[in-house]
Amino acid sequence: MAMSIDDIKATAKKITSSNERTHYNSIITLLNEFEYDQASFQDNELVEQKLRFLVVALFQIFKKMFARNDLSMSTKRPGANNNTATVPLAKFNEWCRKIYISFKMKLLATIGNLTIETSLALDCLDLYMQLLELESVHFASKKDAAFFPNKTLKALIVALWKSNINENEIDPSNGQSANYILLEFLEKYYKPFVDIQYYFQSEFNLLLEDKDSSTSTTEQYTSMKSAAKWVTLMNHDSHMDSTTEELEVFVSNPPQAIENESKFKSLLEKNWCAILNGELSLQLYKTILTVLHKRIIPHFHTPTKLMDFLTDSYNLSNDDMDQNGIIPILALNGLFELMVKNNLEYPNFYQKLYQLLTPQLMHVKYRPRFFRLMDVFLASTHVSVHLVASFIKRLARLSLSAPPSAIVIVIPFIYNLLKKHPNCMIMIHNPKYLYDPFQTPEQQNELKLAKSQYEDPFNMEEQDPESTNAFGSSLWEMDTLTQHYHPNVASLAKVFSQPFKKMNYNMEDFLDWGYDSLLAAESSRKLKILPVLEYETFDSILANETIDQKEEEDTPDKSVYLSSVSW
Amino acid sequence: MAGSQLKKLKATLKEHGLTGQANIKKNKKNTKRKATEYDREEKVRVINKIREQFNPFEVKATRDKRNEKSKDKNNTSNRVAVGKPGISKQIGEEQRKQSYEARKLIQNKRGGLVDRRFGERDKNLTEEEKMLERFTRERQSQSKKKQNLYNLEDDENVYGDDDDINPFDITLTHGGVALATETGFLDEDNGLPLNKRAGLYDDSADGSALGQSGPARKKTKTEVMKEVIAKSKHYKQERQKTQAALEDKIDDLDENFDDIMSALMPTQTKPKSIQPKSNIDIEYDTKFRELNSDQRAVPSDRTKTEEELKNEAEEKKKKLEQQRLDRMKGMVENEDGEEHGVEDLDDGFWSNDDENENMEDELANSDDDVNFDTDKNETDADENDRITKKVQSFNCPTTHDELLNVLESYSFKEHPIVIKKIIKLYQPKLAEGNKERLGKLTGILLRHIMFIAGQDYSSFIKDFEAVTNSLVAILKTLSEKYNQSLSEEARNILIEIQERFKLHHFAGLSNSDLIFFIITGTIFSTSDMYHLVATPSALLISEILEQMKYNTVDKVAYGAILAQISLKYQRISKRFVPELLYFFEKSLSACLDSKTMKIENGLTFSKDDKHILKLHIISHGNDTKDTKFQKTLILNLLNSLETAISTIWKELSAFPEICIPIKNVLQSLLTRFPSLNITSQLIEKIERLMKFNEHVPLTMQNHKPMAIPSHAPKFEENFNPNKKSYDPDVRRNEINKMKAQLKKERKFTMKELRKDTRFEARQRIDEKKKDAEQYHAKMAHIYNTISTEEGAEKNKYERERKLRSGKK
């Protein structure tokens, strides 16, 4: 059965070189040769090499056949105008088309069934797309008529969606698909070509709405894997748009329909909605939400269709998923977009926002994004003082167990809020409790009494920011942070005891700090002065258990650095 | 009035009656009346006025602005004279000339008479003052003399010091003859007359006779001149004679110089022996030189008493503590202190090295190595030698692998000794470059300690502990000298740990990292506000504490130790570490969660359970899940929580806020493990401390009210154009006045100095011109005389020739 590369070369040459069709039968043998066992790829590199050569050779043959009009539907042939020849010629063309279709099927099978990464699949994809281009020219109803072989594309989509590379199928970091064939298709064909984008959307829509076929296929396209693939294809910035001029067309003469932007948008929108209604993995969910406001909403015809999805996400309480309540934080951004541009109204928005301030917020990486938005939401000077006080107090409380990067956001944020709402200054300076050396004894007694009777009225558990009584509380947390171990954080916290003369802090300077950048700032410092040494000496760095048990009294002067750890 | 200036002058003079014949008649009438003083003065005034009028540039005048009538600018009557520039200039010129001439007189001259009379050269004194002063001085000196008169003790002083002040006019006598005359005779014997002047005017030879005969006859001029010439010749001869005699004497002395010298210094003139030195001599010389080069005996510092030593140590400690406190408060390093530190390094570097050696010797004999010494008590010295010899054969290790190669051939217990030997061998004073080598070794030693801490040592913990402790002690000693390289190494290690943690999370960490953090804590001053090693180190510990997911016992145990280290870092500065609070919350709730940690429900705690975690079990042992370890872990966590509460948190203003989550966790711990007594104690403690914590609203903005800067225009109510300054500060006002005066004076003086120099230059040119003129005149005169003489001679010659020709 096995043909060597040389054999293939010889056969292919025979077919393509002469003008006669005498050797067409050997195409069948070549096609039969296009059979493989995936397992053999690992063992023998030659197998793959041969197959790749074979595919290319076959493509050359079919290209030739296109050129010779062997595959065309029309019976007319240039140079052959006698009617007697039409009937056998039609038969011959039919036969040719048959083997052509079988070749396409084989290509798709390769794309859809391979479970390991080989360049053969990529070759197949490339050749298939080139065939698509050839088809658009030769299968057109008339010469130079606009035509796009959408059926062929649909077949490819099915194959792509069928493809499943065992490992590396899903990127664990963002839940998107990392299928290499899909990525190749995205980079090489989907992103740069506007016609492919248009027909892809329309065909994919047909696939999703396919009522005729069994329900399983529809479900197949709303499954987690499908969604992953879909998001991979969609998560980029080169969608067809009235503003993006640089996109090209793939086929030489595509139909006029591809210019219809609103049609494209509504198709895309429908597909998105179908996907979002289907299953989503948590990672993918996060990915969608992070890109929603930038890469999805602008391409929607009516963005309000996303409203339900977003409000549902936003209302997800922390208990629903053990993902530290990140989903609502992420949904906030898209929701904000809708509120600003589409007049979406959200009842009890601030209450919900207040509830988002959880201890976890201080430890997640989406923190800067959230604070950026919160800066916008609390920018209004018309929100009530109690509400602002609640936000301030809650943020301060959370900063007590927060990393320095979060504290560094919270301090300027609170400072800006205090600047904007001077009424809240009472939280850091309550003149009622000010000690004055010129007070009369009665006043002093009064002050003492007030001090002793004072009790913090703030209720951390209260969900409504209007009724937490934060206004009567004080920011001891900020005072405590002046004792922070990191010198920069400590000195930043000292702004509250300095005169409020500074203008607002620019939040952008503080949002993107992390342990990495803090440590990098430290390590980039030059050793100008020698670090000071500890003058205290320790006899041993860890506790000695034997001593600890027996001779605790005998050796009291033995100094130990870490007394509750032993070797 | 018309006509020339002269005519005008004549007319004016006539008008005032100063010239002409107009008043001759009048004069004739009353000739007896003399011109009174008044008339003369009046006359002078009038003449001056006329002079002024005719010489309008003599006077500098300004227009009288206050006079109402003075609108007319050309009206000379309204002009007020303010100065006479011509005259003042002339005066100045004259003064300069005077002083210049005075100076010129004494120029190139020595001696001269200096007028020492009081106040004679002081221009500022008036005649009367001078006289008064002179009088008082005279009186004073007289009174002084009187004092001396009765002062018996100072008698000798009186004679010895100044003969001039001889109060009694005492003259010393010898045999009734005054000694003064004797000296006079003596002088005469020498051929030098007592008084030249006397000799000039009274001839001693004739004078005595003449004096006796009667009044001296006045000599004729020729006589006087002859006498003078004879005398000067005589003196000249005398001088030549004495000069010759002196020269003879000097020659004699020169000839006999060697003899005299030999008589004076017999040792130096010894002829030098060129004989080769004997061996003994050479030996002696070398000994001598050696002894010379030896350090001289210096009185050693007094042995201090124990109390003094204690006091000193205490004082030093106090000083260090104060510096540490300053650093903790973030004050900038005291410049003096800093400099002092650097100086210390420079000064005592070498001597410190000796100390270092001593210290090492001490170390070798310290408790840590007792086991080692007793084991091979006899062979110890040999053993040391063996190690030394071996160590000598290789270079100072420059990488950790090299050090490992070196240490390979020794037993583990010998490692500290080997390293000490290496350090001793590469003392900086022994060779150049040793300092860098040892610096490198310090970093390597740090890595080595980390390395051995990462090994499985569970089978010989005791030895391991001893060795590690002595290695850490060595590192600590080295760190004082090689701070720089150690710090750099530590910072590199920090970066490495962070990268490992970022890539592999918990799997990237090991026990050696814990040991690194501990060593950093023991070597560097962690209480500083900012520290180049301690701050990043604390930051990294916090990062690990915050980012770890506490779902296994291992992780919680690792975190527990990190928490302990973090607490130790803050043991003095007592700074708040939020990550620590986060860690306690997370770890304790992880202990509650039986699913993730697999902690048995029925854990019962007894008093015997220790809270000391064993480091080797955390990483190497597989039995981390046994209940004993879990119990220890929980106890350890609670123990560090207790430390955190009682040392750091209780002083913070947000203590109640900090304790809310902790209390909740502790409550649920108590319900889960009822036998955990320490939990309930902790809760009680928190409640007790909360009562003490004064929790009242903050007053952080209690600042001094700030003054608003005013920008109102300055307006002087009592303006007075004569007043120069309105400064209310009298002192400052006076200072400004003085300054202005000084400036004015300086300007004036500069002007004068310039004038002086210009004058001098002018004068010099004049002199030169004069000299040149004189010279030319002289030359002209010479030429003239020569030509006249020549003419005369020529005429003579002509005449002679005519005569001769006539004769012929």
UniProtKB/TrEMBL annotation, chain A:
PANTHER family: NUCLEOLAR COMPLEX PROTEIN 4, NUCLEOLAR COMPLEX PROTEIN 4 HOMOLOG. It comes from the Eukaryota. Residues 548-567 are annotated as: Disordered. It comes from Maudiozyma barnettii. One of its GO terms (biological process) is ribosome biogenesis. Belongs to the CBF/MAK21 family. Pfam families: CBF. This is Similar to Saccharomyces cerevisiae YPR144C NOC4 Nucleolar protein, forms a complex with Nop14p that mediates maturation and nuclear export of 40S ribosomal subunits. Residues 329-493 form the CCAAT-binding factor domain. One of its GO terms (cellular component) is Noc4p-Nop14p complex. Transmembrane segments: none annotated.
From TrEMBL, chain B:
Residues 1-40, 53-98, 292-372, 788-808 are annotated as: Disordered. Its main location: nucleus. Residues 60-74, 292-332, 791-808 have a biased composition (Basic and acidic residues). GO terms for biological process: maturation of SSU-rRNA. It holds the Pfam family Nop14. It is found in: Nucleus, Nucleolus. Involved in nucleolar processing of pre-18S ribosomal RNA. Has a role in the nuclear export of 40S pre-ribosomal subunit to the cytoplasm. Residues 344-372 have a biased composition (Acidic residues). GO terms for cellular component: Noc4p-Nop14p complex; small-subunit processome. The keyword Cytoplasm does not apply. Belongs to the NOP14 family. The lineage of its organism: Eukaryota, Fungi, Dikarya, Ascomycota, Saccharomycotina. Keywords: Nucleus, Ribosome biogenesis, rRNA processing. This is Similar to Saccharomyces cerevisiae YDL148C NOP14 Nucleolar protein, forms a complex with Noc4p that mediates maturation and nuclear export of 40S ribosomal subunits. The keyword Hydrolase does not apply. It comes from Maudiozyma barnettii.
